[in-house]
TrEMBL record:
It holds the Pfam family SRP19. The lineage of its organism: Eukaryota, Fungi, Dikarya, Ascomycota, Pezizomycotina. This is Signal recognition particle, SRP19 subunit. GO terms for molecular function: 7S RNA binding. Residues 1-19 have a biased composition (Acidic residues). Residues 39-53 have a biased composition (Low complexity). Signal peptide: none annotated. Its main location: cytoplasm. It is found in: Cytoplasm. GO terms for cellular component: signal recognition particle, endoplasmic reticulum targeting. Residues 27-38 have a biased composition (Polar residues). Keywords: Cytoplasm, Ribonucleoprotein, Signal recognition particle. Residues 1-66 are annotated as: Disordered. One of its GO terms (biological process) is SRP-dependent cotranslational protein targeting to membrane, signal sequence recognition.
């Protein structure tokens, strides 16, 4: 059976389970700077997402929000084969993948025919997928016309193209290690699978900054420490 996505589907309201401003960790990544999922990276090659602290020029969040408000949003849950349509999946079940990650969605978008307008927001969270943070915004239309080289006509085609990439680059236990966040040390021991609260579906592979991994290889006081550093 072919499943269709309604044009009336809207992006969900944002959720922040860690109780900090997710805008602090937003990072605009141009395609050339988004790491490929194919090779393995050394410590020097891994990208670092840098929060904004006092003493550094803060980004104009209002201007950035206004500039990107018409961009198409992509969350990992849209491509999660373990989810139903009602639970947030937006591609056909056979098109979905296990454990999709936002960083891989950003990688996919970097290879699509868009003009570099890819915004990776590692701390934005879908309300039905609190344990898998990360969102990607993509400019596919500008002034009512297809952006870039014009080969992506609508969000449904965008979903399909991203899903194809994710199926060709399946998530592995090494995938989260390719995205480093400044101030978040890499784990020194294997991260145990997250314990899913009753009634929630969690992926078995999550980003290192996932709140569901606070008992594993990630320092559970990381976000608290970050906020204290910001407050001086």
């Amino acid at each position: 059976r072919i499943e269709e996505v309604s044009d009336s589907d809207s992006d969900p309201s944002e959720m922040d389970p860690s109780e900090f401003d997710p805008g602090l960790m937003n990072s605009i990544i141009q395609p050339a700077n988004i790491p490929s999922t194919a090779p393995q990276y050394s410590q020097q090659q891994q990208p670092v997402l840098q929060p904004h602290f006092p003493g550094r020029p803060p980004p104009d969040q209002n201007a950035e929000r206004e500039r990107t408000k018409h961009y198409q949003c992509l969350y990992p849950i849209y491509f999660d084969s373990s989810r139903s349509r009602a639970e947030g999946r937006r591609v056909g079940k056979n098109e979905g993948v296990a454990n999709p990650l936002a960083q891989d969605i950003a990688n996919a978008c970097s290879q699509l025919p868009v003009t570099g307008q890819v915004v990776f927001e590692p701390a934005k969270t879908h309300p039905k997928d609190w344990a898998n943070p990360g969102r990607v915004r993509v400019l596919i239309k500008e002034d009512g016309k297809p952006a870039g080289r014009g080969s992506i006509k609508n969000k449904h085609q965008l979903y399909k193209l991203v899903a194809e990439y994710l199926r060709a680059h399946p998530t592995t236990e090494e995938s989260p290690m390719r995205m480093r966040i400044a101030g978040l040390p890499p784990p020194t021991k294997p991260i145990p699978p997250p314990a899913a609260p009753k009634g929630w579906k969690l992926g078995t592979i999550l980003p290192l900054h996932s709140p569901a991994l606070s008992g594993g290889g990630v320092n559970e006081n990381y976000f608290k420490d970050m906020m204290q550093e910001m407050q001086g």
